[in-house]
Amino acid sequence: MNSESQFSSPVGAGGDAVVPVSVLNRAIGTMLERSFPLVWVSGEVSNFTRAASGHWYFSIKDAQAQMRCVMFRGRAQYAEFTPREGDKIEVRALVTMYEPRGELQLNVEAVRRTGQGRLYEAFLRLKAQLEAEGLFDPQRKRALPAHPRSIGIVTSLQAAALRDVLTTLARRAPHIPVIVYPAPVQGAGVSAKLAAMVEAANRRREVDVLIVCRGGGSIEDLWAFNEEVLARAIAASEVPVVSGVGHETDFTIADFAADVRAPTPTGAAELVSPQRVLLLRDLDHRHATLARGFGRMMERRAQQLDWLARRLVSPAERLARQRTHLQQLSVRLASAGARPVRDARARFSLVQMRWQRWRPDLTPHRSKVDGLGERLDRALLRQHERHIARVETLAARLEVLSPQRTLERGYAALLDAQSGRAVRAPSSLKPGRRMTVHLAEGSADIALSDVQPRLTDGF
């Protein structure tokens, strides 16, 4: 849009338009805001001031130029850090005009340390890669031991986080030994050294849980805990690992790979150590419960002992009682054994007498049976002779009608070789057809070469 359309002004004596300064500055600011979108600008902080209203005023510069900046309180309160003189930063800002003074400035919406954007992108890429491989899967994370026999710490010996962790452990669980695996927590090649200490703790098998920690700092300061080598070492650890890196708002790759993330190093120490006071209180409670249970058991045993004592009898008296009882049983057994025998003999005699009285006379019946047997033998013999005579008659008739006897008289049987059926008509005889001829002394396979059928009434 033409800038002349944004304002109207009186015309001077020479016919040229006269524009107020405020209107001109407003038009220039509008053009700047429309021409330059939000952009990231890098430089060094200079003349930083925090106003009583909460707004930030500063400049960013490089070797050739500088630019004034303003960051209003609504944006500044969400910044992760407060810039200091000489800091290398990057600002996301809109190019504007401060109309009262006619000065060009950057209206800052976000601020970060130089290189933080690239580091954050690398952080996101590595996090996505390891998450896709399953290193952050909750199923593979292990629970922390409720009562560890020893606790390991991987951090720098000069780190303030180590003092906080040791102080917390000494206060909560002074009875648990602590082993420190020293490694630097900032600088080049730190991740490999931290990973080596994690592997050493697993190799030595001298701790039940491991804390990997350091104090807070910028993303550059914490970058050693965002390296792949440390994340894989933590994920492969057989000892449960608690990550306590930075402050509660700081997240690193090590936090995701660890079995448990603590908001701070002190929080990590509290997670792995049971509170000694609570343990002693629980121990006293269990001791009292055990004592009460033991006392009740002793009372029940004493009562049972009294009851058994009342039932206790002298061995001699007990033997005399058993002897008397045994004699009574012997008498009862003898009388009980004799009575069934007597009853059985009486019943047997009675049955024998009744049987003798009702016993039948078999002599006449036996003679009759013998006569019937002789008649049956003679009848069977006569029937057998009739059957033999009939079989001989049928055999003679069969011999007369035997095909073999017909063949012996000079006849022959002609059968088709394929179907096995007898050939009866001359029309069935065709050249090349295979036949089987049965004679009196055997058979032969033939093939017809020349056939002249001739119908006759007989020989």
TrEMBL record:
GO molecular function per UniProt? exodeoxyribonuclease VII activity; nucleic acid binding
Matching entries from InterPro entries are given as: Exonuc_VII_L (IPR003753), Exonuc_VII_lsu_C (IPR020579), OB-fold_nuc-bd_dom (IPR025824)
Q: Specify the Exonuclease VII large subunit C-terminal domain's residue ranges.
A: 135-445
State the protein's name. Answer: Exodeoxyribonuclease 7 large subunit
Q: Where is the protein localized?
A: Cytoplasm
Q: Which domain of life is it from?
A: Bacteria
Family that this chain belongs to: Belongs to the XseA family.
Sorted keywords for this record are: Cytoplasm, Exonuclease, Hydrolase, Nuclease
Organism of derivation: Paraburkholderia azotifigens
Q: Which GO terms describe its biological process?
A: DNA catabolic process
Which reaction is this enzyme known to catalyze? Answer: Exonucleolytic cleavage in either 5'- to 3'- or 3'- to 5'-direction to yield nucleoside 5'-phosphates
